[in-house]
């Protein structure tokens, strides 16, 4: 199983800081996003995932686990990120499928989890 996680509306928050010339807010956003992605990657490692990517506002990982509780994973990610930011999540049997599921989640209102196998 592959999982791809991406922050929702982080780019807009960053853009707003630039447009307001607010270096304190930009620094705050950077700190929060870095902290949350590291905490999410640590949670996934503890759950049995191998981290492929952890940078900016995203995390990608894979696991060779028989049964994965996607709802538990998504709720845990929400708890880690709350209340400052939200994440969308895609899962699939390949990295490509997980990314397609992530794109589906992002285009369906964000702040949700989509599984590639349920998209068909």
UniProtKB/TrEMBL annotation:
Occurrences of domain Minimal CRISPR polymerase (ranges): 2-112
UniProt-listed Pfam families: mCpol
InterPro entries found in the cross-reference section: Minimal_Cpol
Protein name according to UniProt: Minimal CRISPR polymerase domain-containing protein
Taxonomic source organism: Veronia pacifica
């Amino acid at each position: 199983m592959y999982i791809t996680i991406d922050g929702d509306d982080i780019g807009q928050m960053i853009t707003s800081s630039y447009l307001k010339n607010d270096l304190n807010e930009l620094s705050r956003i950077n700190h929060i996003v870095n902290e949350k992605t590291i905490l999410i990657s640590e949670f996934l490692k503890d759950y049995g995932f191998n981290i492929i990517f952890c940078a900016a506002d995203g995390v990608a990982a894979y696991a060779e686990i028989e049964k994965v509780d996607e709802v538990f994973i998504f709720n845990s990610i929400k708890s880690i990120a709350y209340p400052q930011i939200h994440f969308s999540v895609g899962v699939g049997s390949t990295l490509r499928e997980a990314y397609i599921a992530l794109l589906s989640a992002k285009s369906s209102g964000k702040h949700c989890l989509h599984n590639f196998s349920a998209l068909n």
